[in-house]
């Protein structure tokens, strides 16, 4: 004997299995704070820690170096202006965690101790430091802002080995 399920049972089955799957996959990666959307066509707020030759602040306060060049190019790729803020690493990471900055640069390595305050990009370049040790360079973005992080990492994967 064959038993048939009423139509509403099938609808209930679909609602419980298919709909949650499609909803959960619709907007990944996401930015809970909207960083990529706000920065695109707007202003990228970048904290700069002095770390020559990657980042240097000259006498007139304008940052220079290989990482500042990369950041300017990334900003251009999302049609953004760049506003730089120079300070020490600890202060910049706190401002990043509080949402006052979108990015922190300054010769950060993949062994950075700041992972509780920032999402580190994948390494985009490998350099030898003054002690002959290999270092993998990263940048720091806000925790949870995954769409922004993915866009930045895609850019760095294409342009990052210019160190």
Can you tell me about this structure?
It comes from Arthrobacter zhangbolii. This protein is α/β, with parallel strands linked by helices and 163 residues long. It has helices at residues 7-24, 35-39, 66-77, 89-97, 146-159, and strands spanning 43-48, 56-57, 63-64, 81-86, 103-105, 119-120, 125-128, 134-137, 140-141. Helix content is 36%, strand content 19%. The strands form 4 sheets. The protein has a 3-stranded parallel beta sheet, sandwiched between helices. A hairpin with a 5-residue loop joins β7 and β8 (134-137). The longest helix has 18 residues, at 7-24. The protein is globular and about 80 Å long.
Keywords:
globular; 5 helices; 9 strands; 163 residues; signal; single chain; 36% helix; Solute-binding_3/MltF_N; 19% strand; two-stranded antiparallel sheet; three-stranded parallel beta sheet; alpha/beta; Transporter substrate-binding domain-containing protein
Give a quick rundown of the structure.
The protein has helices at 7-24, 35-39, 66-77, 89-97, 146-159; strands at 43-48, 56-57, 63-64, 81-86, 103-105, 119-120, 125-128, 134-137, 140-141.
**Major beta-sheet overview:** 3 strands, parallel
> What portion of residues is helical?
25-40%
Segments where pLDDT lies below 50 for 5+ residues?
A: none
Q: Which radius of gyration do the C-alpha atoms yield?
A: 21 Å
The total beta strand count reads 9
Assign the structural class, choosing from mainly alpha, mainly beta, alpha/beta, alpha+beta, or little secondary structure.
alpha/beta
Write the element-wise H/E pattern from the N-terminal end onward. HHEEEHEHEEEEEH
Strands ordered across the widest β-sheet = 4-1-5
Mean pLDDT: 87
The proportion of residues in beta strands is 15-25%
**Separation, N- and C-terminal Cα atoms:** 73 Å
What coarse outline follows from CA principal-axis ratios? Answer: globular
